[in-house]
Write a structure and sequence with these properties.
about 350 residues; two-stranded antiparallel ribbon; 16 helices; globular; binds coproporphyrinogen III
Amino acid sequence: MTKTILRALAGETQSVPPIWMMRQAGRYLPEYRATRAEAGDFLSLCYNPELAAEVTLQPIRRYGFDAAILFADILLLPQALGADLWFVTGEGPRLSTITSPEELAKLKPVEEIDEVLSPVYETVRILSRELPRETTLIGFAGAPWTVATYMIAGQGTKDQGPAHALKAENREVFEGILDRLTEGTIHYLSKQIEAGAEVVKVFDSWAGSLKGADFEKYAVEPCRKITAAIKERHPGIPVIGFPREAGEGYVGFHDKTGVDCVALDNSVSATWAAEHVQSTGCVQGNLASSHMVTGGQALVDETRAIVEAFSGGPHIFNLGHGITPDADPDNVQRMIDAVRGG
Ligand code: CP3
């Protein structure tokens, strides 16, 4: 096996960890901004296979990352299920809300999502032809809880209040949304794999607001179901889980869900995670993305400290969350050089 990311996911400890970056195709890159302008807007870019493949390839050409992540968004699935979706510049996503049994009943059946999502599969096909042979292609979806928080509130929220409220007030509708998303995610990821994705990642960006039994039921259990279904349909395809800000919930996450790799945010220290999370499997992470803005010696020192902390087991270097638009592209190169020993 020549691909370094696949070797890490198979449990191999490597002296230089493979590296990629969440949101590596994004607004901090001038070439991304130019292609997005050509597409018109963000969603048009997501649904234009040629241009979506182009922006996916841009950070690979510029930096030679070990993995490319499909350019798309976790909110395309709710859109394919029938929610209205649009993006307000400078603010973020807006969706039509789902909080009642009637609205839940209006969601489309999972068999129909490909009518909207087929351009995404075409992007994957283009990428699997065009990527360098050493680069791993990662497909992805949002975790049911995280996607549901946007569908219930109609937008991003600080504390996911509306989703927690629906969970308390109408558990049947809440669980109905999660079940439909779980089923839709399995289908969506399977299609990405059939089109050429070699790894899939499940982003549970708001997992940290689920506590105790709720974390087990609505973060662990959907991820376990998705992972089991993917492994049954596509044996050998690795799954990365990202229960962001799970804290102690990261402990045991490999074994409870069956994921091959647990992605870590930067609220946990690498030394703690090496002992308590990497002990059960591959980890990914976890440099604070603010270093991509501030740079300097602190960036180099912290990058080296993370590489060192995880040097005893399988590790994929990454940020703890997506790179932000105000990042300096030169700092990305400094991070890569520090990882690869420059
Ligand atoms: O990582 C990558 O490069 C792959 C593409 C990708 C995007 N979004 C592109 C994107 C991935 C994997 C995502 C995941 C995603 N989308 C998540 C989970 C990860 C996380 O960041 O926590 C979430 C919560 C979303 C929903 C979403 N999409 C929000 C809240 C926003 C607005 C906030 C923002 O950063 O502007 C988006 C827009 C978005 N998705 C952009 C990109 C490159 C910026 C849009 C633009 O170009 O204007």
